[in-house]
Amino acid sequence: MKKLSLCLILVLALLMAGCIPTPTPTTAPTVPVTPSPQLPTPVPATPVPLLTAESLQNGTYSVPRYQKVVTLTNGKYESGSGDNYLMVTLLPQIALGDLNGDGTTDAAILLSENGGGSGQFVSLIVILDQNSSLVQLASSVLIDDRPVIQSLAIQDASIILKALIHGPNDPMVSPTFAVNETYRLGQGKLWLSRLASTFQGGSENSITIESPAFGSEVSQSVEVKGSMPIGPFENTLGYIITDDLENTLTSGSFLVTNTDLGTPSTFDQTLDLTGIPAGTLIRIKVFETDMSGQNQYVALDSVELTVR
Question: Concatenated DSSP letters for 53-67?
């Protein structure tokens, strides 16, 4: 009887176990995923140049002759009367390019100053783009009173100006001395690195330094070689050696070699650099001046070197 009861209990337990359903695993519902829209590849913004003809025509400048700060409107400024009269004009020749190697656009412009008389004093001015700000170079160059400007350009970090300026015997109303001038920028200063000229339609006067090469290193002396198509007055050339701030270190003169006065000439001169410290950047300028005694350059060429 006990055995039967145990069997019945066991059977009932098994039946009850079979009656309880086994839970079915629940699967999370699938949520559709919408792909993000494909964004276009960003295009770098083209920088807007600070230096344009319009910005220069309406710029603020420190004019070198009359030492005043003026703001142009459409390229002109005019104020005062009598002894206080001043008119400043931006000439139409404008050159744009990189002058200091920082990859931004700089400008070379010509400002004419008139203080009430007949004089129109034209100066070469440089405007630099420095950290997105326009900065006028403190150094400027007076080109002439009432020059005739033919062209102005920036090439290879140099400013090239072609103009008619006044020669020693020219009347003020009629300049005839044709010059082709090259200016470079160094240590915040403009300096004349080359000049060629022509007197009233004649042949061009020029000097070409053939060695040493621009930017080379030299020791306590340097051999300077070159040529010119027309020999200088009295077969003599001058030279001046400056540092990069245009301070004169030494100067002198030497004779050229040719077959006759005024014929093509060559020169080969060793210049003493004793006493110039190693590491100094120097500029050697070889030049010819006019015969009037006014020391106006007829021709000039230069080379920049480092003393080792």
Answer: HHHHHT-EEEETTTT
Q: How far apart are CA 269 and CA 207, in angstroms?
A: 14
Q: Do 77 and 71 contact (CB within 8 A), yes or no?
A: yes
Look-up: residue for tokens 């001043």?
86
The answer, yes or no, to whether residue 140 has pLDDT greater than 70, is yes
Nearest Cα to Cα of residue 272 among 214, 217, 223, 216: 223
CA-to-CA dists, residue 150 to 112, 166, 266, 275, angstroms: 15, 14, 31, 43
pTM of the model: 0.82
- 243: closest CA among 183, 189, 206, 295? 189
Summarised one tens digit per residue, pLDDT across range 41-76 is 555 555 556 789 999 999 999 999 999 999 999 999
Reduced to 3 states, what is the DSSP secondary structure of residue 156? coil
Encode burial over 116-153: b for 16+ CB neighbours within 10 A, e otherwise.
eeeebbbbbbbbbbeeeebebbebbbebbbbbebeebe
User: Would residue 17 be called left, alpha or beta, if left means φ above 0 and alpha means ψ between -120 and 50 degrees?
Assistant: alpha
pLDDT tens-digit profile of 97-119?
Answer: 999 999 999 999 999 999 999 99
Burial 70-99 (b: 16+ CB within 10 A, else e): bebeebebeeeeeeeebbbbbbebbbbbeb
**Do the Cβ atoms of 92 and 166 come closer than 8 Å?**
no
